[in-house]
Amino acid sequence: MTAPRPSIPPSDGFDRDVIVIGAGPAGAVLARQVAQSGLSVLLVDAKRFPRDKVCGGCLNARAVSILSAVGLEHVLAEIGAAPIEHVDFISGARCLSVPLQGGWCFRRRDFDQALVQCAIAAGVEFQSGTVATLLPEQAPSDPNFRQVRLQLDGESINLKARCVVISDGLNRRSLDETSDEFPTRISPYAWRGFSVTTPVGSQYAVPGALRMILTSSGYVGLASCESDQMNIAAAMSLKLVRRHKNPGLAATEILQSAGIQLDCDLSQVDWQGTGPLTRRSLTAAHRRVFLIGDSAGYVEPLTGEGMTWAIQSAVDAAPLVARAVQDWSDSLADEWTARLNRSIRRRQLTCHLLTTAVRSRWLTAACLSVASFLPVAPQLIASHLNRPAKTLTNCPI
Ligand SMILES: Cc1cc2nc3c(=O)[nH]c(=O)nc-3n(C[C@H](O)[C@H](O)[C@H](O)COP(=O)(O)OP(=O)(O)OC[C@H]3O[C@@H](n4cnc5c(N)ncnc54)[C@H](O)[C@@H]3O)c2cc1C
């Protein structure tokens, strides 16, 4: 059965309580949470769903605890997610295996589609294949609304909302016309992200394991996401990718550094890529607009926590969004920045430190050697990353 063709939603003057831009895990979970409180929510995504997304598709136990707290854990079974029981960090001839509990691997298009379906079931109106742009406040501005332009197949319409949530990922395209209001800082050392889900080379993925092959110019993760399909995700320096002129060949060089000789050609598969990965929005909320997920800030995928941060930010922001619809006050922006710093940005520091270590071959070798003599050290880091989230019960919507 083909999906109905999307069309621009009608504007009836009042429009929506909340417009959520971007239907990744952050946007879909937030839209559902807010709709459950009885508000009218429009969720828009530029891509036609279901869609693939650059990602390794591994979800840690912390994210699962958040999904479970909001009644969404069932999506993992529905999409047939495969369990991850250990992570193997491989650098040259060294290998460190760290046991994990409660991790999962899946294809991103399935996970994101399932979350969107749950949002729709909660009353969210979903519009895919529609590019949204937050419009600058115009003078004289109406302090009770923000405006969003929606574009689909050459048609365009402006809608008003009492609150707008930006969850459009790393590139924050929806903020192109409001970049002065939401400045961002991109790390000059940031690597680029690439991924593909493919049957090619899937025999090199070990069931139940996430294999991370580390070098000083990039790392590649291999995980089996369903029978004979593998997620290959990589963060690599631009220099390495430019030298090979193809992400597949650059990833092959990294795999070969650990003695993994593929008998298939990764340059022939359909890679998707990102811009610089490590970045941070200097303004997390302003005048009826909240930023969540990657659009608020992201640090490379080494610890595989991006979806955890995205889902946590959605659940944490939802009560503030509901309050903003009733009555905006600048203190809500301060509250959101403080909460983001406390619950997510602090955790991103751990990932930042580890990504800095990986850039040095000697430091990586030293860390793996120490960890193999003192296995409790990586286990402590793993249990810190996987610790169930506590903040949820403090913020009922
Ligand atoms: C190489 C790599 C590997 C990774 N591996 C993992 C991993 O294993 N585990 C993990 O937890 N995280 C991983 N991540 C991170 C994870 O993918 C992200 O952190 C997560 O997807 C963020 O979710 P989000 O909802 O904020 O944004 P996204 O998932 O990026 O969703 C944003 C959505 O917004 C839409 N959009 C963009 N612009 C517009 C617009 N103007 N109008 C409307 N819609 C728009 C996009 O189409 C997209 O659907 C990885 C990242 C990379 C780069």
UniProtKB/TrEMBL annotation:
Name the source's superkingdom: Bacteria
Annotated TM spans: none
Query: Start and end of every FAD-binding domain?
Result: 17-334
- Please give the InterPro entries that the UniProt record associates with this protein: FAD-bd, FAD/NAD-bd_sf, Geranylgeranyl_reductase
Q: Which GO molecular function, any one, fits this protein according to its record?
A: FAD binding
Q: What is this protein called?
A: Dehydrogenase (Flavoprotein)
